Amino acid sequence: MTTTQEKLHQAALWSMLLSAAAVVVSIAVCQILLGLALVTLIASDTPLRFPPVKAPLGVFMGLTVVSMLASGHPAAGLPQIRKFFVFTILLAVSSLLLEARHARWLAGAWALAATVSALLSLVQFVRKVELARDRHQDFYEFYVRERITGFLSHWMTFSEVGMLVLLVLVSYLFFAPGLSARIKVLGWLSAGVLVTSLMVSFTRSIWLATAASGGYLVWQRRRKLLLVAPVALALALVASPGVVKKRVRSMFSARSDSSTSARMIMWRTGWRMIQARPRFQPPDVGELPPAFYGHLHNLYIHYAAERGIPAVLAMLWLLGRVLRDHWRALRRALEDENRFALHAVVAATIGVLLGAMFEVNLGDSEVLTVFLTLVSLGYAAISRTEARKLA
Questions:
Q1: What is the pLDDT of residues 208-246, one digit of tens each?
Q2: Which of 367, 26, 381, 348 is closest to 212 using CA atoms?
Q3: CA–CA separation, 164 vs 374, rounded Å?
Q4: Would you give the DSSP letter of residue 51?
Q5: Model-level pTM?
Q6: 272: CB partners within 8 A, 6+ apart
Q7: Domain residue ranges of the chain, discontinuous segments joined by +
Q8: Which end of the chain, C or N, has fewer beta carbons within 10 A?
């Protein structure tokens, strides 16, 4: 590289790091920096790399375009085409953030930004408690319609990003070698803040996804701890406030929360859309309970109804490939600095797959950005593991 190319490479690297970190705070800043990273990356003549998911990703994108063109309303599908820009993260991160220290830096930046956002969300929660009291309204009914968001625009976005960052942080604390006592204390304090914010967000799908994906990390670190998990959860539920217990009960009853019954209506509607495609007449569902009806609150049903079943299968092919590759790599990376990134990708993918049963999570640019960045870091860790094996 010439001196100019080296400077451009460094500019691209730092732009990408800042872009990935900024997503916890602002998607606009994140995407501006991503664009800058791409321009400087190409100008620097840095060798371009891409994770080995080109085939499923290409099929998914191609089917998305075909679905849009065949819909009869192509303009309505343009937002999904514009979202293809987010997938350039795979190219930028894979070409720039190649070293283990880059993964460590980003884990720290995510943890710091997410912790500050979580602290802000706890302040928001206290204010909402006070506001409901001042208005003499039932707190549960008041709160579930306008919850905490931290720096982000919606409570689901906030919770999904918070879950992914929490998984990265816990994986780092469990599996990164040589951590100082100070880093461990700060890390677990940060994790505690993130867990608290996720609990008071009342996002039930994130509770389930975090429990399962976090359980995977605990299983890999110290399996005996999982034996006490049911007891700990039961005690926590008994000691929790009444509104938390009500939220937990709403997971098992469509009558206790309108969003639960609304989801069932949307899932049935989506299933009928899939069955009737390309001709679709909305089923008669009667009076609709209060809820957001802008999407179907299930990634698999939504994508199948919107883009066709083959597109969903392509997406599952991609996620399955990510899981398989990182699981295999963990067998080779027995005790080294790459394990935390590999475990984080597996845990995050589990969380995304489970969360997708209740939300269109990967349709959210912030969530997609964090996940694709993490996947790219994971494949960089796989490359380092393979290179070490050959050395």
A1: 999 999 999 999 998 888 888 778 777 877 777 778 888
A2: 348
A3: 9
A4: -
A5: 0.89
A6: 280, 283
A7: 3-390
A8: C
